[in-house]
Structures are given as structure tokens and as C-alpha cells.
Amino acid sequence: MTKRSTRTIILAMTFCLLLAGAFLTGCNSSKAQVDKPSDTATTPPPSNTDTIEQPKNSQQIKLYFPNSDATGLVSFERTVEVKDQAVIKAMFSELANPPSGYEPPLPSGTTLLDATVSADGIATINLSKEFKANFGGGSTEEQMTIYSIVNTLTTLPNIRSVQFLLEGAKHAGILGHLDTHDPIKRDESLIIKS
């Protein structure tokens, strides 16, 4: 045998051993995957999600509720039935029903009389007189009430700010402290990140 043929045989044997090793390793790992249960959690982590029955005209919405000590807003997602694109009305209905342990941001008896969205992204919401008459908080609760509504509505892609009306009229301070004469923009600083 020549040196060249010996070298060729050694290279061929080395290649065959490497190929066999790779094949056996591949077989063992696929067997381990079949026999060994997964280490990843199959149950999703708990989240701030309330699920309501999902009818045909359902839409997922994000709502912001004040936390128990009124220091910030906590987001919750719900799936609601929306008829004729009345998503703002659905959001108001849901804001009146806070999750367990949270206070409703809307004063009792508040009714959304009308809502429109302009081409430049201003949602004008016309609220009943109960919004002001039944509000019993101070400036902190006022901030939570106003921004619960504003931050909720501005989750919709076509809304950038919210103009408040009371029985069809603008007010400089609809609840006493915050200026509501002009449209109010979203305030991310009030959102408590989980």
C-alpha cells in the first residue's frame, strides 16, 4: 500500500466515524424530546384580563382603572360585543364595571349621551349631568377619573385626544380642577406598569 492510499483510507474512516457519531447524536436527542416532558410552563401567567363571552361581533378593548389608593391606572383587557362600531359606548359600559378590588372611575349614574370622532383624532364625548353632580372626590380622584377615560379611549387607533362635554356644553373644569375646555391627551406617566 502506498502512503497516498493509506491516507485516503484513514480519511474515509474518520469521515464515516464522524458521520455515524452525528447520526447517533441526532437520534438520541430526538428520542429525548419525545420521552422527556417539556420544561416550559403550559399555563400562561396570570394577567389583568377579564374575558366575557365572545360573540360574533366581539372586539378586545383595553381599559384603565384607578388602583385602590388612586396613585395610578392599571390596564385590563376585556372582550366585548360591539354593535355598529359603537366601541366607545362599549368602553363606557365596561368602565362602569371595574374588576374586583377596584373602584369605578365614573361617578354613579353617568351616562354617555353621545360620542363622535373627528378626522383629526379628537373624540368628543357628551356626558350626562350626573358625571359632575355625583362626583365626590378631590383633585387626585378627578385626575384618575378623567385619565381613566382619556387613556382608555386613546387606545383606539383613530383617537389622539378627548374633548369632554357636559350636557352638550364645554366647561373649563368639568369636575373642578383639571382644565377640560380643550381636548385632553393621553398621560402615560399615570399608568402603573406590571
Topology (SSEs and partners):
Blueprint: H1 3-35, E1 49-50, E2 58-66, E3 73-81, H2 87-95, E4 112-117, E5 122-127, H3 130-133, H4 139-153, E6 161-166, E7 184-185
Parallel strand pairs: 1-3, 5-6
Antiparallel strand pairs: 2-3, 4-5, 6-7
Helix pairs in contact: 2-4
Global geometry? globular
Query: How many separate helices?
Result: 4
* Alpha-beta content class: alpha/beta
The radius of gyration over CA amounts to: 30 Å
Name the average pLDDT. Answer: 79
N- to C-terminal distance: 74 Å
Order of helices and strands: HEEEHEEHHEE
For the biggest sheet, the summary is: 4 strands, mixed
Please list the strands of the largest sheet in the order they lie side by side.
4-5-6-7
Number of strands: 7
Low-confidence stretches: 27-55
Query: Fraction of residues in helices?
Result: 25-40%
Question: How much of the residues is beta strand, in percent?
Answer: 15-25%
